[in-house]
Amino acid sequence: MRFRLDCPVRRPPDANETARGIVPFDAIQPYWFDTGPQWVFEQFVAFKQKDEDGTETKDDVQQLVARAEARSSPDGAPSFVLLVKREGAGNLRHCLMEIWSMTMTLDVLRLAQRQNGEPFYNSPADMDNTYVVVLDNHGAGPTQDLWRVFSRNPVVTLDDMVRHTERVPAPLRVSDAAVTQTNIVVPLPGGSNPLWHNDWIVRDCGPRDAPLLRLFVQRVFDHFDVALLLGPKVPVGNGNIVVTFIDRRGTRQLLDNEHLLDALRQRYPDITVQSFDFATLSLPDQLRLVQDTDVLVGVHGAGLTHAMFMRAGAGAVVEIQPEGLGYKGFRNLAAMTGQKYFGAQAAMVTAKELETAKTQSKEPDSPGENQRHRLRRGEPAKPWQLAHVRIEEDRFLALMDVAIRSVYNEGLRDEFVV
């Protein structure tokens, strides 16, 4: 099924437009995991084609085009169909980058003006006339509802439109009617998000340099009606420091983590040390959890994206990386949210140790979603992506010492740091 646009492909840019960086329509680049405007247009959108005499071409492709009956609203406002092709549904970081890219896409349309001076998109007025259509078959995932930050209508899939009409709002039901008063919006892909760029080098961006990040975070909290708390928690003695460990159940587990956390509790009996498998929590509950967290700890992975949802400038992020990785993305994210960052590298287990860890883990070890996607495409996973890690108890405690003491050192608690 394709969405039909009753207009030809836009003309090539002229010399002045090319000098300003505008590329021809057919030169738009694809992005990883089969995403981005080029992929969406090639697979899901058909343009009106004309012969040399100006008449519309009648070819086999056009005959296969399904037309959606997109009615205008009672006040005559046009409808907007947001075509979403996701990288996956389970990796929090990737999903959030895609949703963030959509917010930037619509923000640009709100700022850009038509010839009559009106913006291309009005928010929140156009939210009633906006429909999110998911083009892939990755399933819902924990962030599915967050796509409704752009629309007051249910999120539908292409499969819903073809096979399950009863799930689809009337303006999107497939019929023989021509598409009228409808705008198709193809968002910037998640891979183009500025937070992805230069994440293998240390960037000099601080909280003052991250207004787009702050705006996106606020929108996420507003959507789920979760209070966004700012600044350090008001201390009650020294016992209200909360350390939250992200308990990975697939790849990159921290071996013997229960023993390490028990050792940390013994060293700091007055603070709360807790461990959660974030995959078992709803996204709103994850937000509430990290808002109450002073020190967020985890092995390198998508869960550390939650650094953006911690109280700004009021905590610490601890990342344990597989040896030799050298990734800087979460370090940069912590800097942009005003969190202190502490990192260490840990030894990757040998093949024999990995097999032992599989038999001892609480749940079967399995590749993460992005690793499964690479395997389907014949791309080998890198060793650090599939390995577990091990860190010595004394090194783990030394790492946590500096993180916890940095929270004490905010000056709000009556505690010596040495």
Key terms:
13 helices, alpha/beta, six-stranded mixed sheet, four-stranded parallel sheet, 29% helix, Rossmann fold, 14% strand, 418 residues, glycosyltransferase
Question: Would you kindly provide a written description of the structure presented here, covering whatever features stand out?
Answer:
- Keywords: Endoplasmic reticulum, Glycoprotein, Glycosyltransferase, Signal, Transferase.
- Residues 353-379 are annotated as: Disordered.
- Residues 353-365 have a biased composition (Basic and acidic residues).
- It comes from Sporothrix curviconia.
- There is one protein chain.
- The protein has 418 residues and is of the alpha/beta class.
- Strands 10-9-11-12-13-14 form a 6-stranded mixed sheet.
- It is 29% helix and 14% strand.
- It has 2 domains: 3-192, no CATH class; 210-408, Rossmann fold, CATH 3.40.50.
- The protein has helices spanning 15-19, 37-44, 60-63, 92-111, 158-163, 211-224, 257-267, 283-291, 329-336, 351-360, 369-376, 383-386, 393-408, and strands at 3-5, 45-47, 67-68, 79-84, 130-134, 156-157, 174-175, 182-185, 242-246, 272-276, 295-299, 316-322, 340-348, 389-390.
- The model is unreliable at 58-72 and 176-180 (pLDDT under 50).
- Strand 12, helix 9 (329-336) and strand 13 (340-348) form a beta-alpha-beta unit.
